[in-house]
């Protein structure tokens, strides 16, 4: 596979293209109308598409998906430059400075003779110093609001755990899970939609905590469950199609039987 001979030149070209798209006189009307808030959802979407390509090991698609994600960075930087806030060079400088500062065992005089676990602890200590320098005094301050809710739950729980606010182990979390499940049943009986949503959120939060104590990535676990559901439901569709039918033409009992057959086939 050929490699681009000059990454700097291609980066400058991308920045120039983005500036042209945002030109008020000759640019693209859609690009000109965008702002940080309108572009943010696309940024999140492109990051997920990168993760999807990696999960599928679609290595031929990955350069394009990474390019789409890079475009989001350039887009935000261009809008910031127009507002006199910062530009792409400031973005690149910020992450370069951060990487150097957080790796004194590579770029400084600290020893590299540490375990991966010790380096993670050192990383967290450096991040804590950075938060203190930004006057972030609360333990939970600085956990981004824009993170996916499940990911943010884990980060909030990890922050609290560092100062000792945590369950001793999975058994206690399972007890809490049973408690929250009972409260959800009570809320359902009360027919109060707002309270029901609150209790459901509490249950999800405890599930995230259980995943953390079991050393399971909840996002990855749910992605795997989604993939399994998709695979088995498609098996139902295929089996029905072989009979000249569709799911809406069959009964729940029939689809359940086909589901069980697909499940059994996966285990053989």
From TrEMBL:
GO molecular function: ATP diphosphatase activity
Pfam families: MazG
GO terms (BP aspect): dATP catabolic process; dGTP catabolic process; dTTP catabolic process; dUTP catabolic process; response to stress; TTP catabolic process; UTP catabolic process
Domain of life of the source: Bacteria
SUPFAM superfamilies cross-referenced by the UniProt entry: all-alpha NTP pyrophosphatases (SSF101386)
Domain NTP pyrophosphohydrolase MazG-like, residue spans: 34-107, 172-232
E.C. designation(s): 3.6.1.8
Catalytic reactions on record: ATP + H2O = AMP + diphosphate + H(+)
Record family assignment: Belongs to the nucleoside triphosphate pyrophosphohydrolase family.
Protein name per the record: Nucleoside triphosphate pyrophosphohydrolase
Organism: Paracoccus alkenifer
Species classification: Bacteria, Pseudomonadati, Pseudomonadota, Alphaproteobacteria, Rhodobacterales
